[in-house]
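User: Okay, second chain of the day. Same drill as before: sequence in, structure tokens out.
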Amino acid sequence: MSADDIVQVAEIERESFSAMWPPTAYRRELTNQIARYTVITTPAEEADAQPAGGLWSTLRRIVGSDDSASGERLLGFIGIWLMVGEAHIVTVAVREAYRRMGIGERLVITAIEQARGYDQECVTLEVRASNAAAQLLYEKYGFSRVGLRRRYYTDNNEDAVLMTTPDLATPVYRALFEELRGRHQQRYPDLWP
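Assistant: Same drill. Structure tokens below.
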């Protein structure tokens, strides 16, 4: 994530979460060797002109990148850590004005693609127990509930549901993922380069 992105990431976090990471955490993530972050952007003038219109987005890997986000409006972001054998989604968020436009799903697809590209066996994450919409999206992509972390979220002591995919390399999962990816690409072609 270029340092220029941190201000906009914080804006998206304020819209999305009651507890946020401090900007210094994202600065550390830029040098974290196991972290991979991706953003979806659009040119700022187009975002201001058509907040709910077509998306002129680009996916940009933002770990250690020197690319500047000047002139771009970040619409959403996702971060993963490449652990031993698994990719762990540590954060994902989309600007409120751009939700329900396929961006969150596109980010999840990207995280799974990155995990596969780094030969990870599965993808894991924690999600608020009350976030039914996110859980449905994750379940669509094969994530199963495998545990509960009691009082995980410090802002309100809400539980987190621990979810994981099956082995990403199995033919069954690969077929499911490719089918869902293709459907998303057909429905939201502007989100695909």
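The two ends are 20 Å apart (CA to CA).

User: Thanks, on to the next one.
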